[in-house]
Amino acid sequence: MKTILSIENLGVRHGRETVLSGVDLTLSRGEIVTIVGPNGSGKTTLLRAIVGAAPITAGRITRKDGLKIGYVPQKLAIDNTLPITVRRFLNLPKKISDSDAQQALARTGAEALTSRQITELSGGQMQRVLLARAIIGQPDLLLLDEATQGLDQPGSAEFYTLIADLRETLDCAVLMVSHELHVVMAASDRVICLNGHVCCHGTPEHVASAPEYRALFGSGTKGALALYRHEHDHAHDHGHENEHDHEHS
Amino acid sequence: MLDSFLTRAALAGIGTALAAAPLGCFIVWRRMAFFGDATAHAAILGVALALSTGLPIFAGVLVMALAMAVFVTKRNARHSVDTALGVAAHASLAIGLVAVSFLGNIRFDLESFLFGDILSVSKTDLLVIWGGVAAVSALLCWRWDAFLAMTLNEELAAASGIDTRREQLILTLALALVVAVAIKAIGALLISSMLIIPAAAARPLADTPERMAAIAAVIGMLSAIGGLAGAWYLDTPAGPSIVCMATLIFVLTGAMKRRG
Lengths: 249, 260
Hints:
heterodimer, A: alpha/beta, Rossmann fold, 9 strands, B: mainly alpha
């Protein structure tokens, strides 16, 4: 496996507050890695540091020479006063040809949206357009920040299928941040549990059963996580099952 | 032709509108109205600086506007704190007015710096204004796509290799230039209005960012000419009349949109 990005002992501070410390992470071509962690755990800051938008206060980030990053933001800070069509948006920051634009939109199932105003798109349409923009120019690394926020369950499942397809066709690495533990973890090769530092990491099954992870996300009474563990980890004790019955009744 | 003060006034108004309106689109899109206010009000501090050091007014205003803009940018690196900007906007105005009052031995008309004095624009002023127009337009054309990407999403811009801190600084410099250019024609208190109102008036008529900037420039120029004409016939103050004209156009384009 070819390493395209390696992070060593990364530290980021905002003013006096330490947001990240001692973070190590390597990414290789073709793998899907997910970062999970509670609110304020530094997930988005880590992505910001990788793209160079957050100043690094310790450690270092080594990118493969000429690494191309496709970034899919959580949302656009687009004000209603800004008129911009999907096609015009795809030209940022570099102008691309109409055929490249059509191809990218077709890949994410958004070809019908070319001339629509960005502010009029639904959540799902918006995510497809943002993803289309990110894959223009064949990125080596796709970064997704809470990309499925605002999508319903089938919508986000479909979205992750699309990501898995793109990983195949583009042969890129995917690093994503998400709250939707069960869907995301099932779709990942590796999971990193972050809370200012890396609490635990490994395969989805490994992380889901790690005590550090359980300490952060509770011991299974949360529906989403429980669902995941029902599918992948059947070592429930009796009391645990009861809690579930209670919640679902 | 430039010997008529009315011609000079019209050229000054048109120049100010041309410099302010397209940049104003970014102020609106980035929700920086208060930021514009803080920078514009710092102009009065710049006037005090210029009068006490013998610098040209344009230079003093440019320096102070730039200093204020950089100061508030640093203070609000990540958060746009409404209150902090409000404090900066009004404090700089008040401190500027107090500073100017210390220069009691220098005779000048404070009102002309607050509301502009477009009817007394000299040929040198025109040169400064149109030089500023050229500089601001060049900056905007040069950095347009980077500014736009940064406006939509900072991380997305950074991931495409844009140095967002540098772009922010260039945008700030453009704003300071506009303030320095506009103080003669419009005055420190109303500069923000020439940034925001033409842009807001252009919004209902535009479907791309570029068209919005172009329409805003046209609306700004129409406001300058219409406002001056109104001031001439109704004997009203020129700067505020230009802003009133811009506001009238804003109301009209808003109404057109609702009908259409």
